Amino acid sequence: MWSSQRYAIEGDPRFFAINLSHDSLENHYKTNFSLMQHHHYSLIELELMMPWEREIYVAMLVNYVKEENDRIKQQQQNGGM
């Protein structure tokens, strides 16, 4: 049977502040909005991600979009095949 557990994050709270200092608050909200509107993430999914996990998913998504754009551009150059 499933049970609900809560985990406390212990340690120095400055850890997250230092690691997230490269991302502005404005960029954080714009990225959340884009992920929700264009890629169907829910706000709760985004908020529950660890900062490093979010960065990995965003990097993977950026790479995917670049590859798709390159593929579409290649198809257009080859006559729409």
Descriptive account of the structure:
- By secondary structure, the chain is mostly helical.
- The chain has one domain (14-77).
- It contains four helices and no strands.
- The longest helix is centred in the C-terminal third of the chain and has 27 residues, at 51-77.
- The mean pLDDT is 82.
Secondary-structure topology with pairs:
Elements: H1 14-19, H2 25-39, H3 43-48, H4 51-77
Low-confidence stretches: none
Q: How many strand segments?
A: 0
Radius of gyration: 18 Å
Structural class by sheet pairing and helices: mainly alpha
Q: In percent terms, what proportion of residues is strand? A: under 5%
- What characteristic shape results from the CA principal axes? elongated
Number of H- or I-type helical stretches: 4
Q: On the 0-100 scale, what is the average pLDDT?
A: 82
Strand-and-helix sequence, N→C? Answer: HHHH
Which sheet architecture does the biggest sheet show?
Answer: none
Amount of helix: 55-70%
Give the total of domains: 1
Q: How many angstroms separate the termini?
A: 52 Å
